[in-house]
Amino acid sequence: MKCLNELLVSSPQMRCASSSDCAPSLQLSRLSRARLLSLSYVSSPDASFNASVSVLQSRQSEAYGGKRSTTDASRRQTRETRSTERDEPFCVSRSDAPDAGVQRALHALETRGLRSGGGDPGMSLLSGGFGMAGWGSGWVLMLLALWRPGAACPELCTCTGARISCVDAERSIVAFPMLQSEAEMENITDIYIANQSSFKSINEKDLDSYRNLRNLTITNTRLAYISRQAFASNPKLQYLNLKENNLSSLSWRTFRHLNISYLLLAGNPLQCICENVWLKQWRGEEAEDLLCVEEGGMRIALSTLKLTNCVLPTVTLKPTKVTMRKGLNLTLVCNTAGMPTPNLNWSTCKLNSAYELQHEHSGQRSELRLVNVSSLDNGCKITCRSENMVGEAEASVDLDILFPPVISKLMDAISDHHWCIPFSVSGNPEPKLRWLLNDNPMEEGPFIRTMIYDYSEGEYHGCLHLDSPTHINNGKYTLLARNVYGEAREEVFAHFMHEPWNESVTDPLYYDPTTDDTPLGPPEDKVAVYVVVGIAAVTFTGFILMLVILKFGRNSKFGIKGFVLFHNVPVGVVAR
């Protein structure tokens, strides 16, 4: 029989024939058995855990031969029974647990026992030692193993972080597991499926919700069909292990949009047919490990497979380079060869020019004709692609359309960190730019300069930067764009500052962002006014306080009469 570490691939029994049949971490000693019998139910939302503990308790009780008696005779009989069973191993398997939650708990206990480093493995697993601290750590480990993120893991699988594992051979799944919400499925990066006899296909929508999937393993199942759109929603998939399944053919179109680093296919009954030849070319030296089955049932190395009517397509596109003036016509010719006869198709950007397609009946030649080529198609990439069941090939050309400059945007000046007059210009070749201020050439320098920030959709986007402009920079700005095929010009008025009240002063004293032409007077010295008003207020307040003190100071509690203002004192009194 096989124990916990082998339960993923076989169905175990409850008792072991000998100690060698069980992993040491699963041979529970009599002390650990007694500990297991003392397990009590916990307050857990996972009712299957309580049921699992009950099953383990009942089976342990049966191993002891019934309940323990409290009489001396029963105790002696129990000791004799234990002494005879001391060396008989007792195996606990994951299949005895009613669901995957307890399987994870037993796996955690197994790991803990293997790390105990000697002694009684069963004691290490369940008790963690004879002390209360050991029991506490064992319970914490067991509860953590039973915890499921969001309690959303399917019953037949186990979930750990961003991984889903479905390996129970007795209860097979038929399709990919589904979690409770799409958000939980988007967090999954690893799916492992093994030993599932009912798993037979990967259909178009099965993996739509696993958008961040990176690693997928499906091994030792009856997988025989994979849709060409099976991985359309999994652009991050890099590792794909499909070993030991029933795949007889596999199309390259299934993986055309993926950046697969590892594709493992050994152990599949691949047929020696043209549809599988792409594996030989795509995998290169790794294809030497793959075998294919001929019609007579003989297996040969895929790397040696040669089929006369199975040839990878080739494609040519003429002309190979296009440089032309706008308004002319263009014809592109694409030719292909391969067996079986490839299909030709064109891929382009969104063309602004009028076009038409012509295909020959043989399917090996196609023409794309552009009429009155637009300057908006400058830089457009046109691709001719040929494909059959062996693979694909393509050829491309970029359109280089020559046309005079076009100023599509020249806006009013805006104030940011500096003043800026935004513009957008197109032209091929790239036009040269210069500015006029009031119809006079403007010299650029560190304070006034042209800046290009971006090139997109065939246009140059930039600004005329002005650092701290004054009234002398007001006026009409003209942008000139010129190349060998022509010139374009646009004008805009900019007003940065009103003229100062003193025409002899050329240095700016203040900025006025308004557009009103009414001259403004010099600003008042508000600080001086505030100082004068403050001093007057302090003086008046002090005068009022002095009057109050003199008024109420006559009847002082010390018996001293205060001085009365404006009172005539007799001369005789003064003489005394």
Would you write up a description of this structure?
- The chain is α+β, with helices and mostly antiparallel strands and 576 residues long.
- Helix content is 21%, strand content 27%.
- The chain is built from ten helices and 26 strands.
- The strands form six sheets. Strands 12, 14, 17, 18, 19, 20, 23 and 24 form an eight-stranded mixed beta sheet that branches.
- The protein is flat.
- The protein starts with 29 loop residues before the first helix and ends with a helix.
- The relative contact order is 0.05.
- Residues 1-135, 143-151, 505-522, 558-569 and 571-576 have low confidence and may be disordered.
Q: What does this entry show, briefly?
A:
This protein has 576 residues and is α+β, with helices and mostly antiparallel strands. 21% of the residues lie in helices and 27% in strands. It contains ten helices and 26 strands.
Produce the secondary structure layout.
Blueprint: H1 30-37, H2 47-64, H3 72-85, H4 100-114, H5 121-126, H6 132-146, E1 158-160, E2 163-166, H7 182-186, E3 190-194, E4 201-202, E5 215-219, E6 225-226, E7 239-241, E8 262-264, H8 277-283, E9 291-293, E10 299-301, E11 311-318, E12 322-325, E13 330-339, E14 343-348, E15 354-359, E16 365-371, E17 381-388, E18 391-410, E19 414-415, E20 419-428, E21 432-437, E22 440-441, E23 448-456, E24 459-466, E25 475-483, E26 486-494, H9 526-552, H10 571-575
Parallel strand pairs: 2-3, 3-5, 4-6, 5-7, 7-8, 12-18
Antiparallel strand pairs: 1-2, 9-10, 11-13, 13-16, 14-17, 15-16, 17-18, 18-20, 19-20, 20-24, 21-22, 21-25, 23-24, 25-26
